[in-house]
Design a protein that fits this description.
Elements: H1 3-19, H2 22-30, H3 36-43, E1 50-52, E2 75-82, E3 85-92, H4 103-119, E4 123-127, H5 138-154, E5 160-164, E6 167-169, H6 174-178, E7 181-185, E8 190-192, H7 196-203, H8 209-213, H9 215-222, E9 227-229, H10 232-245, H11 270-273, H12 284-291, E10 297-300, E11 308-315, E12 318-325, H13 336-351, E13 356-362, H14 369-373, H15 376-389, E14 394-403, H16 404-409, E15 419-422, E16 427-429, H17 433-440, H18 442-447, H19 451-466, H20 471-474, E17 480-481, H21 487-498
Parallel strand pairs: 3-4, 4-5, 5-7, 6-8, 7-9, 12-13, 13-14, 14-15, 14-16, 15-17
Antiparallel strand pairs: 1-2, 2-3, 10-11, 11-12
Length: 515
Amino acid sequence: MTMHDRVSELALIRDEVLQGVPRATQAQHDKGKLTARERLALLFDEGSFTEIEQLRRHRAGGFGLEANRPHTDGVVTGWGTVEGRTVFAFAHDFRIFGGALGEAHATKIHKVMDLAIAAGAPLVSLNDGAGARIQEGVSALAGYGGIFQRNTRASGVIPQISVMLGPCAGGAAYSPALTDFVFMVRDTSQMFITGPDVVRAVTGEEITHNGLGGADVHAETSGVAHFAYDDEETCLAEVRYLLSLLPANNREMPPATRPRDPADRRCERLLELVPPDGSRPYDMHEVIAELVDDGEYMEVHERWATSVITVLARLDGQVVGVVANQPLSFAGVLDIHSSEKAARFVQMCDAFNIPLVTLVDVPGFLPGVEQEHGGIIRHGAKLLYAYCNATVPRVQVILRKAYGGAYIVMDSRSIGTDLSLAWPTNEIAVMGAEGAANVVFRRQIQAAEDPEATREQLVKEYRSELMHPYYAAERGLVDDVIDPADTRSALVRALSMLRAKHASLPSRKHGNPPL
């Protein structure tokens, strides 16, 4: 056989691999799902994807698999570009063995993960698989172990994004849980450790696949998913957008763009948007939109733990992470879930050199037996630990209330923020004036002829003496009290000054955060 014949034979094999089995492809489309290669085509720049180990097949060692040895072994691996920047990916091919993971399948994933770590480039996994390949037994389980180990080794080194486009059950669900971001598609993707059948057998509870582990459940209730979308095309477009906001690795800065929005733009609308009365709610999303470039941002965990907002955006073309209390949701309090949500976001930003802007309007931690018994102390400490450990540029802006331990935790000067700015409406104190007067002057109020009038007078005195807008600034705990309309330009100037910030942590193997 000549070289030309060999080349022709290779071309035929590749054509068969790329085409797949038409019946299996149609079955995938009938479920409302794209094939692995169609998904990769949407993720990567046109024509940029380079596949590796396309001809890989399992070793026919699995029970009952001897006669069925398709090329790729049910996973497509390789690299390409997203907006011109290198990105690695693997995509389960549900048409082959239901995307189930076997030894060869796992080895291909290990290879592409090792390449991503070595090249210092993001890794995207397109998940659509039936879990471990039962016919290969413990070899399949060992394959998952290798993936988990690499997920952990890559954590904080390269961005890892998991995109759930089908089922992900059992041990397979732990790989997405170890990555930085999880995307899900409604109706077609589910994640759970034990499925509805097992739940029914063990507990007697009846529940559907989507009710147990669908996109909305994980985006709103469990917090496992950071993003949820209605279709694959929108989901993958948003993955591309997220990648445009992240650096390739922890040694690089996030990609900057040429700003169109003037850095010194005044935000006059903020004067009307935020009521001076600390008890009146407003939408912090609108504040963020006023401050960031062109009003554009990407919210992480939009529907989970909504009393805190976490977004990625740009200020003067530079990527920033914004953590903000949301007065429209439980008055912006910190609770178990919001503390954990913000802590994870702060930790991610710090790992990938993304400066942090913290917008503070917090009345405190949520009180209650459920919160205390649920470990609010431990979970609140996660956010405290994340901020204290962060070495990226950090700027705090206090809009209105900043009470008690929640003020400290929201990146105050005392835990290391680089600059603290405040609006003239700020109230920084151990607690609100009413509560403070009731504690400090309890006996005086009880002994008064008119307790209510006395209480009101003492509240006014406490507020004027200890909660006036310049009290913290006079003591150096706030660097400046600014006109709200100048907040954007103040943030841009501060972050520009801090861009070359260098900070290091004590020499240690690693800290011991309150997990």
